[in-house]
Design brief:
By secondary structure, this protein is mainly α. It has one domain. 74% of the residues lie in helices and 0% in strands. The protein is built from nine helices and no strands. It has helices at residues 2-18, 21-26, 31-61, 70-95, 104-116, 129-137, 139-151, 167-194, 198-212. The chain is elongated and about 60 Å long. The two termini are 36 Å apart.
C-alpha cells in the first residue's frame, strides 16, 4: 500500500505526462482535479484487490492473526481507506516534480528511505531516537501501525512505541496528510499542466525515440 501510494502513482503520472495524457486532461474543465480523483479511485481499487489476494490466503496459512472479529475488519477498512487517501496525493505531487521517467529514481529515492525507516520491515524502536521522530511525522509509519493493529493480537501492542496501537494518533496523522494532499495535489498538478503544450509533448516523444535508437 505504501509503495503504491508513494511510488506507483508518481511513476504513472510521469509516464502519462510524457505521452500526452495529462495534456488531454488539461483541456477538460477541472481536468486536473478529475485526473487526480480518477487515479486515486483506480489505484485504490487495484491496491485493495492485490491486498485481498495476499490477505485471504494468509488467513488460512498463518496462525495467530486477529482477523476473526468485526473490530479487526473495521480497523482494517478505515486504515486502508485513509492510508490510500493520505499517500496517493503525495505520489501525485512527487510525479509532478519531473518530466522524465528515467530521472524519477532520483526523486523517489527519499520515499524509499521513508519506507525503510517506517517500522514496516524493521522494528522502529531499534532506530535512533531522532530517526523515530522523523518516521512518525510521515504517513507510512502510521499506515504500518494501523495494519498491524488490525491483523495482530492485542498483546503485540507491547512491542510498539508507547506500548499501544495509538488509533487516535493514527487517525489524526493519516487524516492530516489526506487533507493536506487533497488540497495541495490539485494545485501542484494545475501548475505543472500550465507548462504542458503540444510542442513539449512532441519534444519528449522525439527524445524517447532517439533513446530507443
Amino acid at each position: 500500500m505504501a509503495f503504491t501510494g508513494l511510488v506507483t502513482l508518481a511513476m504513472t503520472l510521469t509516464v502519462e505526462r510524457e505521452d500526452g495524457t495529462l495534456l488531454r486532461a488539461k483541456a477538460v474543465p477541472n481536468g486536473m482535479l478529475g485526473y487526480l480523483v480518477g487515479k486515486i479511485v483506480v489505484m485504490s481499487g487495484m491496491t485493495v484487490v492485490s491486498l485481498c489476494l495476499q490477505l485471504v490466503p494468509g488467513l488460512f496459512l498463518l496462525d495467530g492473526l486477529a482477523a476473526g472479529t468485526a473490530g479487526s475488519w473495521l480497523t482494517l477498512a478505515w486504515v486502508i481507506l485513509l492510508g490510500l487517501v493520505a499517500t496517493l496525493p503525495i505520489g501525485a505531487i512527487v510525479g509532478s516534480l519531473t518530466d522524465n521517467p528515467r530521472s524519477l529514481g532520483i526523486v523517489v529515492l527519499p520515499l524509499f528511505g521513508l519506507i525503510a525507516t517506517s517500522g514496516i520491515f524493521y522494528p522502529i524502536d531499534n532506530l535512533p531516537g531522532w530517526l523515530q521522530g522523523v518516521a512518525q511525522v510521515f504517513p507510512v509509519y502510521w499506515l504500518g501501525l494501523g495494519m498491524r493493529s488490525a491483523l495482530l493480537p492485542a498483546g503485540m501492542a507491547a512491542v510498539e512505541l508507547g506500548h499501544s496501537w495509538r488509533h487516535l494518533e493514527t487517525l489524526g496523522v493519516l487524516g492530516a496528510w489526506a487533507i493536506a494532499g487533497l488540497v495541495l495535489a490539485p494545485v501542484v498538478l494545475r501548475r505543472m499542466a500550465r507548462r504542458e503544450s503540444g510542442s513539449t509533448v512532441e519534444r519528449r516523444r522525439q527524445q524517447a525515440v532517439q533513446r530507443v535508437r
